[in-house]
Amino acid sequence: MQNILVIGFSTRNIVCSARRAGYNVYSIDAFRDLDLQKCAYGSVLLEFRTAKKLQQLDFSKIKVKMDSFELKFDAIVPGSGIGMVDYNSFPCPLLASSPDAVQKASDKLYLSKRLDALGISHPHCYSPEELDTIECPVIIKPALGGGGTFNRIAKSKQEILSILDELFGLNPELTDQTVIIQDFLEGISSSVSLLSTKNEALSVAVNEQLIGISWLSRLPFAYCGNITPFRTEQAEEMEALAEDLVLRFKLLGSNGVDFLFTENGPVVLEINPRFQGSLDTIEKAMDINLFEAHVDCFRGDLPDKPNAKCFAARGIFYSDRELFIDRELMDIIIKEKCADIPPQGTVVKPDWPLTSLFSCTSTREDAVLFLERGAKRIDTFIENQTKSRGND
Prior knowledge:
The protein is of the alpha+beta class. The protein has helices at residues 12-20, 34-39, 51-55, 59-67, 99-106, 108-118, 157-170, 235-248, 279-286, 290-297, 327-335, 364-391, and strands at 3-7, 24-29, 42-45, 75-78, 125-126, 138-142, 152-154, 179-183, 188-196, 201-211, 223-228, 253-262, 265-272, 311-318, 323-324, 347-348, 353-361. The protein has three domains: 3-96, NAD(P)-binding Rossmann-like Domain (Rossmann fold, 3-Layer(aba) Sandwich), CATH 3.40.50; 124-183, ATP-grasp fold, A domain (Dna Ligase, domain 1, 2-Layer Sandwich); 188-388, ATP-grasp fold, B domain (D-amino Acid Aminotransferase, Chain A, domain 1, 2-Layer Sandwich). The protein has twelve helices and 17 strands.
């Protein structure tokens, strides 16, 4: 197996991991970042800017993109937003969990009911139809998909109604059937990244998640990256829970389970049945190639459990305004040794990710400080560039 196609909403981290593992890797995604183009043997752009629209994509349109490579692929790896496509449509094997397993693991309302039955701690979920039974505060979010950009807190039933109206106006794809309401709990957002075969699961890393970091995003619940490893006395409990869940949901390869680390212990938030945003920091901190390990899972093989070599951090920097990526801005981003670099000439909309900053240091504090300084330099350049253009 040599020629690999990665299809998803954003595929840069998977593509570059596959390239480092020695594969001839190609990509179809909605960003086609500059560094993705350097890692991939070939890449084409999907003209879809939401993961939901990508999920609804007709296979015939994907096939047109695939045919443009004029190549026979040995395997396809789906990334975020592509998990529900009919696998039988593809002309080669997919290295992924079954569509049924992906659907069940991704649906937060279904997951809530399963966790209830298993007696596993999690925030109670409501549907909008259960308004009379809801106790506030609650958090309102899409039932499918992640990223946190549409998550909102409501402290009263009137706020719930107001927020639902707001979300339905912001995103027509959100309806009473596609949003959920969860009890809002305080804690540290974290995740366990795993590898699994049909019979075994291995926790590779426990990660701290960066959510709504003010110097990375103005959105209070935006996923802003993560730090690997997350040092906590509850790590082993989280790993055991995560391993149990991925086996129960019959997931294969690289998957993740999100937790909230509370004063009463870990609480399961959701399952990500795919490669996660923590891929980069796990590879840096744990000295492992996750793509190669993912492929091995479909042969029934798991690696030895890795140990952390450093604290690796990723900070996703969101733009607070519409930005045109000119040569000057792209050079500033590249100078910071970022990833997810938007190509020159593209436009980044407000509250969309601009780029990802990275660090790998001996302490968590230094890793975060490195990110913060880089974000400050990019933010200062954008402010000065905006002022300069305003004065022209």
